[in-house]
# Entry
Amino acid sequence: MHQPIQEFNKRALEFVEHIGLLVIVIATIMATVAEVRTMFENGAVKLEDLLMLFLFLEVLTMVSLYYRSGKLPVRFPLYIGMVALARYLVLDMKAMDEWRMLAVTGAILVLAIAVLAIRYGHVRYPYNEEEGHG
# Structure
């Protein structure tokens, strides 16, 4: 009796998940096109433009990886966070006081350490996906 309901719930959640990912992909492509158009209109490419494009590429890579493997590594949002903070630092450095700059660079360092810890944990303590830990 519960099996058909569980199967329906699973399929409904998968459908919503795919719609959400499709919205993310479309929005990211639209933002990328807008950013490239702005670069052409300005006639120049600045570092913040490249960092923004890199953020968009990371989002698309994350969605692509999820579709290929069915999993989303925690590292990808951490990478996106590091690049977003670096972009914020580059754009607003002149308006920041020393403490804010230290806080942003400290946040980037914490994210980098988290990535290293996750990578170390995966190499040093691998887990078996059949055990339900994947």
